[in-house]
Amino acid sequence: MKKEKSLLLGAVLVLLIGMGSTIYVHSIEAKTDKIEVNGKAYTIDQIFLIAEYRTLKLSNGNFSGIALDDFIRKIGIPNYKDKKYTFVGADGYQKTVEWKDLEKGILLKDRKVVFSHLPKQYWVKDIVKIEVVE
Amino acid sequence: MNKIIRLATGALLFGSIWGFSECIVGDYLRSANLPAGAILTGIFAVGLMSASRILYQQPGMQLGMGAIAALMRAFNPFGACILCASIAIFAEAVVFELIWLRLSNDIMRKPHISASTGIITAYTCFAIGCVVTQVLTPLVATSGFYVENLLAFLPQILSRGLIPALLGGIVLPVASILTKVDISKIRSSLYYPATLAISALLWLAIALA
Predict the structure, then answer these.
(1) Which of A87, A129, B154, B170 could disulfide-link A124, Cβ–Cβ 3.0 to 4.6 Å?
(2) Residue B185 binned pLDDT confidence (cut-offs 50, 70, 90)
(3) ipTM of this predicted complex?
(4) B117 touches chain A (CB under 8 A)
(5) Per-residue DSSP letters for chain B?
(6) Are the beta carbons of B162 and A91 separated by less than 8 Å?
(7) Is the pTM of this model over 0.80?
């Protein structure tokens, strides 16, 4: 009887955690059409005017966007090769990569990053911020 | 001895079905933009592990199933991080074993208890599977693991676990119908050829996919 009560209580708790987290995730979702890079906000069109294009030919299709390394180089980040870069999505999901990864990465028009050599886990969607980490 | 062989072939069959669903069904779900991970855990992983546990009533068997499913996933060429997916599958089997350590078929006969167990099992398997993948993939990808990235993703993991939890709450009461089935009564002349033939077919399908 005690085990049955614990299971019922556990299930209710699990559902409450799930629902609470869902409400929290939706409440923190950023609604912006700009991408903040090292404290400065850019529209996706501005970014596409700054950096050169790159196409990645992957097993699941071709992806075209702007070269991430070229973009970072052109916006004047000092010592950019020694920094790390955290890509933050509108839903709070984030991934940190190194300069060598940016050299094989692109930003798509729909604000998604794609890396040719990294797992899909790194393909952050709806980018709202690129943090430059020391 | 006969019991051990029966358990091993049972683990091979259920593990192969699980691995097959992870590889083939998962691929279709992703193509259809459906929450593949949530559906695979809530329906296939929890459904198959609980069905086999109810049928064979043998703790530890699901760990073997997980190893077989993970091995099949490792053979499958689809997906970006095959090793991580395999480890996540095995992690789900470990979590299942821990949750079901002190559970018996008797309490599974009550629908509200089996539903509660399904909710807890599916949610925990999914959440821990996600965490394991989030930790291991960056290490395998040589990009390094950053704990702040995991912490930022935790609310989403806890949120996304809701779908498998609800699915688990439906799947387990359905699987608990198997409490009325006595697997040991199936004749050996039928049991072994059937389990081995189905398992072989599933592995062949994966090899040819």
Answers:
(1) A87
(2) confident
(3) 0.87
(4) yes
(5) -HHHHHHHHHHHHHHHHHHHIIIIIHHHHHHTT--HHHHIIIIIIHHHHHHHHHHH--TTHHHHHHHHHHHHHHH---SS-HHHHHHHHHHHHHHHHHHGGG--HHHHTSHHHHHHHHHHHHHHHHHHHHHHHHHHHHHHTTS---HHHHHHHHHHHHHHTHHHHHHHHHHHHHHGGGGG--GGGS-HHHHHHHHHHHHHHHHHHHHH-
(6) no
(7) yes
